[in-house]
């Protein structure tokens, strides 16, 4: 009696019972599972299993599953648009994306960009040259650079208008022009878009090659972004030839979105290479998304270059900028320019030079 | 109201290509354009089946939804037609169509395709019925004469059925009941909705 | 003054843009075509030929 009541013995008995129960439960689950290990490791069952269980499917239902999942067959008909798939499922997805989110959010994105810029302009107004014009100008963009810029800019605008017409025309332009009128315009728009696109691509690629050296990010840009680019307020952070914002436009806009649009555009524009409609549907979606983002970005670029900043546009039109504008917006570039021996020139001097040149060509002996 | 549908009975189709030939001949379809084609799955292997595929005249047609110039329309009895005067040949309907029905006379650089051409259920187009303009643009108009598409009417094994969806489904159901097996109304779900 | 002018333009512009978002702009309706009229696509034409086509299907398509 006393032994059974011994706390040490009672504890030991309890512990033995507990572990026995645990062992029974664990082993009863683990031991049968060893069968899997055996079947996996020993080759004895392998052949037999393959013989009895594999390929137990019905070839007829296999075939219909294949057809439903967009599998290909054999067809004797020939032609550029003959496909051997019974049902292509990509088309319906493309339709849902294009007619749903792409058109809805794309439209709102562009409207939102325009409203945001107009609101910004209404609130802050034009950024004027501090202390007015000095009347002295320095060279900012050379002739070939300006040609490249305006060639690409004009083709960009034409491509944007024609491209947006194809995307939104049915909702916006058909109610205005009617079916006949819009179809006639759309025919021209599509051809212009398809033929101008490759020329535009050359312009964008040339821009990337020629202007990459101006757009290498550096420490100045970090400081520039920290100060918000001087967009709000009077303070103006330092910048080289291109400021942080222009570099973002270059890398995100021209480089990234530009290359995406160009590559997908070529996929769509040259069906003669025989890419499938699935590839083209995906390319069309990517092309449209990238182009919409780029157009929204372009609104900002165009605003800052024209209305938003006094004295900025003439850098791209005449090629020369006012020295006060240069000191305000691109101080480091201006200092470097002066250090390299560039002389700011007044309007009168420029006029005189032009006349002198004209006289020179007229055959006057010089010196 | 009748609702026109195509149905190809794969158990009966013998891949004779007569529907393709009939269509080409009836509508004088140019080279390279195929309004109807026969696809053979598992060619030469067990489970080989062939299906004759053309425009299925979908209820909610993807081609009509994506067309930038809105050139498609559906007749009151469910035939999807298009207006070649409006078509700009952008190729969008070809991307969207699950059956690969839209065809174009050209495939050249700079996306030049020409006007889209597809099966009209032998119902012509928006030109005056039986006019020369309709014949050259869309082919003959058999439906206006009270006839059904030629491909189905001359199918030797009656694998290809065309006409009012109810009648077509009825004929097919009787067949399946007689011969057993599962009904396979290929393409109907994609074309006429989940409950078809 | 230019600020007021710009605000006025913005108001007019956004109003005209919002017009395009009205409910009378039909995005897409299945089977609704607003282009060229086709006489054979109308309800009456389909009604007229339905009987004939039905007979044709019953006589030509059924298994005999």
Summarize the structure in short.
The complex is a heterotrimer of chains A (367), B (196) and C (64). With 367 residues, chain A is an all-alpha fold. Chain A has helices at 7-41, 46-52, 59-68, 90-124, 143-172, 174-211, 219-226, 244-269, 277-308, 314-317, 323-329, 331-339, 347-361; strands at residues 136-139, 320-322, 345-346.
Task: Give the class-level CATH name of chain B.
Answer: Alpha Beta
Shape of chain B: globular
| SS-derived structural category of chain B | alpha+beta
C-alpha end-to-end distance of chain C: 88 Å
**Shape verdict of chain C:** rod-shaped
Structural class of chain C: mainly alpha
Low-confidence stretches of chain C: none
Q: Give the % helix of chain B.
A: 25-40%
The description of the largest β-sheet of chain B is: 2 strands, antiparallel
The string of secondary-structure elements of chain B, in order, is EHEEHEEHHHEHH
Per DSSP, what share of the residues of chain C sits in E-state strands of 2 or more residues? under 5%
Q: End-to-end span of chain B in angstroms?
A: 16 Å
How many structural domains are formed by the residues of chain B?
1
Count of β-strands of chain C: 0
Could you report the average pLDDT of chain C, rounded to the nearest whole number? 71
- Tally the helices of chain C: what do you get? 2
Rounded Rg of chain B = 17 Å
Mean pLDDT of chain B: 91
The largest pleated sheet of chain C is described as: none
CATH topology-level name of chain B: Alpha-Beta Plaits
| Rg value of chain C | 26 Å
What does this structure look like?
Chain A is 70% helix and 2% strand. By secondary structure, chain A is an all-alpha fold. Chain A folds into three domains: 1-34; 59-88, no CATH class; 92-344, Up-down Bundle (Fumarate Reductase Cytochrome B subunit), CATH 1.20.950. Chain A is extended. Chain C is rod-shaped, with a radius of gyration of 26 Å. In chain C, 17% of the residues are buried. At the A-B interface, helix 3, helix 4, helix 5, helix 6 and helix 9 of A face strand 2, strand 3, helix 2 and helix 3 of B.
């Amino acid at each position: 009696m006393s032994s059974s009541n011994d706390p040490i013995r009672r504890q030991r008995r309890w512990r033995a019972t507990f572990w026995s129960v645990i062992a029974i439960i664990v082993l009863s689950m683990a031991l049968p599972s060893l069968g899997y290990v055996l079947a996996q490791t020993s080759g004895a069952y392998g052949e037999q299993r393959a013989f009895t269980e594999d390929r137990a499917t019905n070839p007829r239902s296999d075939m219909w599953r294949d057809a439903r999942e967009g599998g290909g067959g054999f067809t004797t008909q020939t032609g550029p648009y003959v496909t051997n798939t019974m049902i292509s499922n990509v088309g319906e997805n493309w339709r849902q994306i294009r007619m749903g989110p792409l058109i809805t959010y794309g439209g709102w994105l562009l409207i939102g960009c325009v409203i945001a810029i107009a609101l910004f302009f209404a609130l802050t107004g034009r950024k004027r040259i501090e202390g007015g014009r000095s009347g002295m100008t320095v060279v900012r963009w050379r002739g070939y650079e300006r040609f490249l810029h305006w060639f690409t800019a004009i083709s960009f605008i034409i491509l944007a208008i024609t491209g947006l017409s194809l995307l939104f025309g049915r909702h916006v332009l058909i109610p205005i022009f009617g079916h006949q009128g819009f179809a006639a315009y759309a025919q021209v728009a599509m051809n212009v878009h398809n033929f101008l696109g490759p020329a535009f691509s050359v312009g964008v690629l040339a821009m990337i090659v020629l202007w990459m050296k101006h757009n290498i990010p550096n420490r100045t840009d970090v400081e520039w972004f920290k100060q918000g680019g001087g967009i709000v307020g009077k303070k103006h952070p330092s910048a080289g030839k291109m400021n942080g914002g222009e570099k973002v436009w270059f890398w995100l806009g021209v480089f990234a979105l530009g290359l995406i649009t160009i590559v997908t555009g070529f996929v769509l524009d040259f069906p003669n290479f025989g890419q499938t409609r699935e590839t083209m549907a995906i390319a069309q979606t990517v092309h449209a998304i990238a182009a919409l983002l780029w157009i929204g970005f372009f609104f900002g670029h165009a605003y800052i270059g024209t209305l938003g900043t006094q004295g900025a546009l003439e850098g791209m039109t005449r090629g020369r900028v006012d020295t006060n504008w240069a000191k305000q917006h691109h101080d480091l570039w201006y200092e470097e320019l002066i250090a390299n021996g560039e002389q700011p020139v007044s309007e009168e001097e420029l006029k005189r030079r032009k006349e002198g040149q004209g006289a020179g060509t007229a055959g006057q002996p010089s010196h | 109201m009748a609702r026109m549908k195509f149905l190809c009975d794969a158990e009966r189709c013998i891949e004779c290509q007569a529907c393709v030939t009939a269509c080409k001949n009836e509508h004088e379809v140019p080279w390279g354009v195929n309004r109807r084609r026969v696809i053979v799955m598992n060619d030469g292997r067990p489970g080989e089946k062939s299906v004759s595929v053309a425009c299925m005249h979908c209820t909610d047609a993807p081609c009509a939804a994506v067309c930038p110039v809105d050139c498609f329309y559906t007749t009151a009895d469910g035939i999807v037609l298009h207006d070649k005067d409006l078509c700009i040949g952008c190729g969008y309907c070809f991307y969207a169509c699950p059956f690969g029905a839209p065809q174009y006379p050209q495939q050249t650089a700079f996306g030049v395709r020409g006007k889209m051409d597809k099966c009209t259920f032998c119902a012509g187009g928006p030109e005056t019925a039986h006019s020369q303009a309709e014949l050259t643009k869309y082919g003959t108009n058999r439906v206006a004469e009270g006839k059904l598409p030629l491909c189905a009417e001359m199918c030797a094994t009656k694998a290809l059925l065309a006409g009012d969806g109810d009648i077509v489904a009825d004929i097919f159901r009787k067949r399946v009941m007689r011969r057993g097996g599962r009904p396979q109304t290929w393409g109907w779900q994609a074309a006429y909705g989940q409950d078809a | 003054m230019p600020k007021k002018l710009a605000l006025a333009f913005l108001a007019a512009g956004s109003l005209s843009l919002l017009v395009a978002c009205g409910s009378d702009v039909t995005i897409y309706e299945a089977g609704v075509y607003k282009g060229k009229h086709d006489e054979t696509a109308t309800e009456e034409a389909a009604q007229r030929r339905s009987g004939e086509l039905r007979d044709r299907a019953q006589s030509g398509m059924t298994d005999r």
